[in-house]
Amino acid sequence: MSDKQTAGVHHITAIAGPSQENIDFYVGVLGLRLVKKTVNFDDPGTYHFYFGDEKGSPGTIMTFFPWKNIPKGRVGAGQVGYTTFVVPSGALQFWERRLNDFHIETEKETHFDEYYLKFEDPHGLKLELVEREEGPLNTFEFNGVTQDVAIKGFGGAVLYSGSPRKTADLLENGLGFEKVAEENMYLRFRSQGDIGNVIDVPVKAFPRGEMGAGTVHHIAWRADDHDDQQDWRQYISGKGLQPTEILDRQYFTSIYFREWGGILFEIATDTPGFDTDEPIDKLGEDLKLPEWLEQHRNQIENIVDPVEVREVKPK
Ligand code: ZN
After folding, report:
1. Domain harbouring 76, CATH code
2. What is the pLDDT of residue 215?
3. What is the pLDDT of residues 230-284, one digit of tens each?
4. Could you tell me the distance, in angstroms and rounded to a whole number, from the CA of residue 154 to the centre of ligand 1?
5. Domain count, the chain
6. Contact (Cβ atoms closer than 8 angstroms) between residue 232 and residue 255
7. How far is the CA of 28 from the centre of ligand 1 (A)?
8. Structure confidence at residue 1 (pLDDT)
9. How many whole angstroms from 47 Cα to the centroid of ligand 1?
10. Is residue 315 part of a domain?
11. 102: which of 27, 120, 211, 311 is 20 to 30 A away, CA to CA?
């Protein structure tokens, strides 16, 4: 039993191609809300988009670094293999039809007695949808996606580890997940939260992944607040891993560390959240910059392409 337990996934960050295509897919097709439009704090000439439920709740946040000319990466060991979104019971049929209307190829698969709809985003990121009862409905409605079918947030993720047994051990004895099942060389772990709470780890060797468009950069786990973050940092160091200093990400604080299977893990706080610099009803409308980048606003606005949230129609 682990001394500390995360509630589950906080956010997942991936690399995308052109920024407008990224927004059109995640908002226009998948019906998530753009809850923050900011820049990559480590590379302020590029955007950082956050998509989520109406409020940008932890456990619903898919984030992207979009780059216009980035070559496609390769999904493999040392990465998140699939990002899993959860939809209400009975919604999978709606999604199969909707994705096919948008000419997105889907594939059906069953694991652990659950049906999955698998597909890729326009830049090759591997996604899957699963129906589950748990987790509140997402009240954000856009472009034909209503709350009875809307993505509620993450179901979890499938981790392609370079060292699956060690990653499994860290999930169980470091992050406080419980191992709940094993089937066809897949291990399944569950956390206490009602969203972002199911992590699958295939116990097989994948060729090494390569970072690029269509790959996940890192997966972040939930901590409560800054005090809890300090405990986590000490705790993770005690496990023999090497977390970074606590970094201010404006909407949460973060530590990062590379786990034994090569995947970049982050721990991020639920507080202060996305309404720290704009009200809930205006989330994502303006380009938001942290104080230390505000002095470069003109320069930044000249570099990034203008983007908009808009309804898209099947072509
Ligand atoms: Zn992150």
Report:
1. 3.10.180.10
2. 98
3. 999 999 999 999 999 999 999 999 999 999 999 999 999 999 999 999 999 999 9
4. 15
5. 1
6. yes
7. 23
8. 61
9. 14
10. no
11. 211
